[in-house]
Structure formats: C-alpha cells, structure tokens
Amino acid sequence: MSAANQLYIVTGASRGLGAALAQALLAPGNRLVCVARSPAPALQQAAAAAGVALDWHCQDLSQPEAGARWLQAVLEAVDTPPASATLVLNAGVIEPIVPVAGLRADTLVPHLMTNLATPMTMTAAFLAASERFGCPRKVLAISSGAARRPIEGWSAYCAGKAGLDMFMRSIHAEYAQAPAGREVRAVALAPGVIDTGMQSTIRGADFAQVQRFRDLKAQEQLASPDDVAHRIAAYLQRPDFGSTELDDIRNH
Ligand SMILES: NC(=O)c1ccc[n+]([C@@H]2O[C@H](COP(=O)([O-])OP(=O)(O)OC[C@H]3O[C@@H](n4cnc5c(N)ncnc54)[C@H](OP(=O)(O)O)[C@@H]3O)[C@@H](O)[C@H]2O)c1
Predict the structure, then answer these.
(1) Which among 198, 209, 226 is the best mutation to test ligand 1's pocket, defined by most ligand atoms within 8 Å of the CB?
(2) What residue segments make up the domains of the chain, in order of their start?
(3) Which of 77, 150, 170, 215 is 20–30 Å from 57 (CA)?
(4) Rounded to the nearest 5°, which phi and psi values hold at 138?
C-alpha cells in the first residue's frame, strides 16, 4: 500500500462543480475515476499534463442498477489497494421545477433516480467493493440548502436532496461502531450558490423565488465553481471529516 495512492471517484465531472472539483483534485498521489454522460476532454488533458491518473467513464446515472454495476466493476479492477478511497456524489439535476400539483412520474422518477436512488446504489457498491482495500473510506454527497428548507416549485429537488442527507446520516449510524479497516465517514455538504449550468437553468425557470436567483447573478453574488471546488478539496482532507454529518461549505 502506498501513501501516495488516494483514490477519488467523482460523479458528474463533465462540467460545473464536479469538473472543477476533479480539476482541484489533480494533485500528485491522487488517482481519479470520473463519470458523467458526456466526456470532458479538457479535464483529461489537464490530468495528463499534471501526470495524474484519471479514468473517464461515460455512464447515465439515472439508472441505479447500471450505475452500481459500473462502480463495482471499476473497484474490482483496482489492482493496487489505495491508501484511501473517497466517493464524491456530485451528479445531480434540478428539473422538474413545477408546483407540487404539476409533478408527473415521467420527469419525477428520473430526477429521483439521478439525485437519490443511484447515489444510494453506488454507495452500496462502493462500500461492498472497497472493503477489501482495508483503507480509510469517505463518502461526500453534494447536498443543497434546499434539502433543509423548502423552495416553492422545487419539491422534487428538495425531497431528493433531503433523502440524500438522511442517507448520509444512515451511513454514519450504521458504520459508527465499525472495526478498524471497515470504517466509513460520510457527509452531506451544501456547497452554496454556484455559477454553473444548473443556476442558469434555475434563472430560466418559472417559480416564486426566481427573481432572487436572477438578482444573485446580476449582483455577481454567485460563488465560482473553482473557488468552491478548492474549498471542498480542502474539506475532504480535514481530520475531523465526518464529525458533522450535515454540513455547509459556507461554514468553513
Ligand atoms: N449550482 C448550484 O448553485 C448548486 C447549489 C447547491 C447544490 N448544487 C449541487 O451541486 C451538484 C453539481 O451541480 P452543478 O451546479 O455543477 O450542476 P451542472 O452544472 O448542471 O452539472 C451537473 C453534472 O451532473 C452530471 N449529470 C447530470 N445528470 C446525469 C446523469 N443522468 N448521469 C450522469 N451524470 C449526470 C452532468 O453531466 P452530463 O450532463 O454530462 O451527464 C454534470 O457533470 C449537484 O448535485 C447540485 O444539486 C449545486
């Protein structure tokens, strides 16, 4: 086992916060597995230039079974056990943005698959397939302030992210007494309001508080993905990672 072999799996790394986080993790000794539906050639080039191993996989994470199978296969193929293994559940969608009475299964179900069910099945695969490494393990779910307070029109997103929060707490409870070598530290982290494609979708939607999001953009109040990503990369290294199950990067 080498101290310079930290394995990171980052979902939704093709753009936005996930791409910036993968970029921030391009440090010597790290090894990245990144996944989204579309490729990220600039990230792959940056990894090659930095001499950091990065495996890119195109995978639709609205499919919980396929997502879990994919991650299991990735971890089973790891030949040198890493010094640590970290799963970052970042991939997510915001739509449908509709009143509760307008929710329809054809958009609600894929949303909940992407934002909740696949993160759960992938975590299950991660925990099962990484146990043989006997190394420290972390799960970081990118949550949202909307998991913790409702926003009109966002009921799918609020419910999915609240579910993800509770899932991280469930991991924490289940692994609290795990013996050495089996421990898992899990956090659901709200990242603040970030200038990504998701915010652009929000500003173009029709819901009660939309003007607040338009104003934040107009007043240049959005956090930059790079800045948040660097803060999250530092947060992952904190010795007390996992001590606050539901956290917000703006508190650090
Ligand atoms: N931006 C904000 O202000 C904000 C605030 C709070 C929380 N968040 C959370 O932060 C995370 C990142 O958001 P973002 O703002 O960076 O969003 P974004 O710019 O829309 O990027 C979303 C990422 O998720 C991936 N993704 C979406 N659906 C997928 C699917 N079915 N399969 C695989 N990958 C999928 C996308 O890749 P492909 O499209 O290539 O598949 C993309 O890489 C999300 O969990 C979001 O809820 C964001």
Answers:
(1) 198
(2) 6-195+224-251
(3) 170
(4) -135, 145
| Cβ count within 10 A of residue 169 | 15
Distance (Å) from CA 60 to ligand 1 centroid = 12
Residue 14 CA: which ligand 1 atom is closest?
A: 43
Is 6-195+224-251 CATH 3.10.580.10?
no
Q: Whose CA is nearest to atom 39 of ligand 1?
A: 37
Kindly give the distance from the C-alpha atom of residue 200 to the centroid of ligand 1, in angstroms, as a whole number: 12
In this structure, the strands spanning 53-58 and 30-36 are: parallel
CA distance 148 to 112: 17
DSSP conformation class of 200: H
pLDDT in tens, the chain (252 residues): 344 599 999 999 999 999 999 999 999 999 999 999 999 999 999 999 999 999 999 999 999 999 999 999 999 999 999 999 999 999 999 999 999 999 999 999 999 999 999 999 999 999 999 999 999 999 999 999 999 999 999 999 999 999 999 999 999 999 999 998 899 999 999 999 999 999 999 999 999 999 999 999 999 999 999 999 999 999 999 999 999 999 999 999
pTM score of the predicted model = 0.98
DSSP collapsed to 3 states, 75-128: HHCCCCCCCEEEEEECCCCCCCCCCHHHCCHHHHHHHHHHHHHHHHHHHHHHHH
Pocket flag, ligand 1, residue 250 (CB < 6 Å): no
Establish whether residue 118 lines the binding site of ligand 1, counting it when its CB lies within 6 angstroms of any ligand atom: no
How many A from CA of 76 to the centre of ligand 1?
Answer: 26
